[in-house]
Amino acid sequence: MTATMPALPTPGPAPTRPVAAALDLVKVYGSDKTRVVALDHVTVEFGRGTFTAIMGPSGSGKSTLMHCLAGLDRITAGRVFLGDHELNALSDKELTRVRRDRVGFVFQAFNLLPTLTARQNIVLPLDLAGRKPDPTHFDQVVASLGLGDRLDHRPSELSGGQQQRVAIARALITKPDVIFADEPTGALDSKNGLALLAYLQACVRDLGQTIIMVTHDAKAAAHADRALVLFDGRIVDDIGRPSVESVNAALARLDA
Ligand SMILES: Nc1ncnc2c1ncn2[C@@H]1O[C@H](COP(=O)(O)OP(=O)(O)OP(=O)(O)O)[C@@H](O)[C@H]1O
């Protein structure tokens, strides 16, 4: 089932056609005494080919927002759009297919399958969908990540930085509408972390990829085009061209 994405007011500079959006999104966990409002009427849109960081204190709703936008979690109220789909209107089966075909994921723990080679891990989402990789795209992704001579290695034979690059190649291989990255540099040293962030920026700039990244790290957020700050399930700041200073100042205001 598809639906037209409504026009939403866009804060920040240079709006592009949105590829993901939440409209009056509410997510409640539990009931009665255990009831938690994790997202409290969130409205936001993400332009195609943009790189957004989601920040905020622990428990502010960052992961919940990412999971709802990615179709990993069902919403309580409101609407969520991804590509041509209104996720809340899809059956579980349709949602699984959209997630598999239209979304890429990169996690802090690289989540590679240990018994598969790098090559097999990269093409796994296509295998699961019964699709063959486009050889040109495969070669481009592998070359741009410098993985050409590592394709027959298993994850245990790769460094942390190389494993995370395999995870990014796996996320890129389906040409997804959005890549969701959850603390992608969390398990890397600062040199590998910076290299990874530079690569994510290049994916946005050169491939027009859309990336939404949850992070606690102001330095990581400063690599994005935009930083959203969440607090108590609401978006309280929306910073265009974030710097370490502007992000830290926004977080400091939360304590004031
Ligand atoms: N499955 C769940 N069941 C019940 N409550 C949940 C569940 N998942 C999240 N919550 C609650 O929802 C709120 C938002 O959680 P969320 O994980 O989205 O925050 P976060 O900003 O990602 O936090 P962190 O930075 O610590 O990862 C929190 O109060 C959390 O305890």
Automatic annotation (TrEMBL):
The keyword Nucleotide-binding applies. GO terms for cellular component: membrane protein complex; plasma membrane. Residues 23-256 form the ABC transporter domain. Pfam families: ABC_tran. SMART domains: AAA. It comes from the Bacteria. GO terms for molecular function: ATP binding; ATP hydrolysis activity; transmembrane transporter activity. The keyword Transmembrane does not apply. Signal peptide: none annotated. Keywords: ATP-binding, Nucleotide-binding, Transport. Transmembrane segments: none annotated. Gene3D superfamilies: P-loop containing nucleotide triphosphate hydrolases (3.40.50.300). This is ABC transporter ATP-binding protein. It comes from Propioniciclava tarda.
